[in-house]
């Protein structure tokens, strides 16, 4: 009997999945490759490229305005990543491991920013923080507020991804590790010590030790 791995329907599904993955990669990569190639043109955006040059990169990094904008974007991107990742991962773990009253309402509140138009979300942030000053510091014009506004969209995405990931974890393994070693998040030295004691016991209790 042929293995289920090589059944015609399984082979067809794997082929379709591979073709779809290749299509997505090319769909994303081709515009990036074209843009990078055209950035090496010394004149305008056109094909074929007659003269290769780094002119546009020199102009970019030679302009304080563009360099400041790049630095500002990087700071906001890193801050948004940190702000959205930590609560997103923790919330996904709590929702997957525990059941508590009001869970469905809180789930809806976490996911709601994804279903709101960007204009409405931006107006809400502007109305809520437009005139807020803390010790003479204008919150509305701060990078922190921009990071928080971006995190309203990013955090639900992290939450969905990590919730699906945590569902694939066999919690019996986590419970077994907790029972045998202690906390699964305990320092590795404790786990190593526990494993060394088990190995020592096995050696002492092996049949060869009684010869």
Automatic annotation (TrEMBL):
Chief site of localization: membrane
Alphabetical keyword list: Cell inner membrane, Cell membrane, Membrane, Transmembrane, Transmembrane helix, Transport
Membrane-spanning ranges: 12-34, 74-95, 107-132, 144-162
PROSITE patterns: ABC_TM1 (PS50928)
Membrane protein topology class: Multi-pass membrane protein
The organism's place on the tree of life at top rank: Bacteria
Cellular localisation: Cell inner membrane
ABC transmembrane type-1 domain residues: 70-211
InterPro entries: MetI-like (IPR000515), MetI-like_sf (IPR035906)
Protein name from the UniProt record: ABC transmembrane type-1 domain-containing protein
Gene source species: Dongia soli
């Amino acid at each position: 009997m042929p293995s289920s791995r090589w059944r015609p329907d399984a082979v067809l599904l794997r082929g379709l999945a591979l073709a779809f993955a290749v299509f997505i990669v090319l769909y994303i990569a081709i515009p990036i490759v074209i843009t990078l190639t055209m950035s090496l043109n010394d004149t305008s955006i056109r094909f074929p490229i007659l003269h290769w040059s780094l002119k546009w990169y020199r102009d970019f990094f030679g302009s304080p305005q563009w360099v400041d904008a790049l630095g500002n974007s990087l700071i906001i991107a890193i801050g948004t990543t940190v702000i959205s990742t930590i609560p997103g991962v923790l919330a996904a773990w709590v929702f997957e491991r525990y059941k508590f009253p009001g869970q469905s309402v809180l789930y809806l509140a976490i996911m709601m920013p994804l279903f709101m138009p960007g204009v409405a979300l931006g107006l809400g942030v502007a109305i809520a923080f437009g005139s807020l000053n803390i010790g003479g510091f204008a919150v509305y014009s701060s990078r922190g507020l921009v990071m928080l506004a971006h995190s309203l969209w990013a955090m639900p995405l992290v939450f969905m991804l990590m919730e699906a990931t945590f569902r694939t974890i066999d919690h019996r393994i986590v419970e077994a590790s907790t029972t045998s070693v202690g906390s699964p998040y305990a320092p590795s030295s404790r786990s190593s010590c526990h494993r060394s004691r088990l190995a020592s016991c096995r050696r002492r209790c092996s049949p060869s030790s009684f010869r």
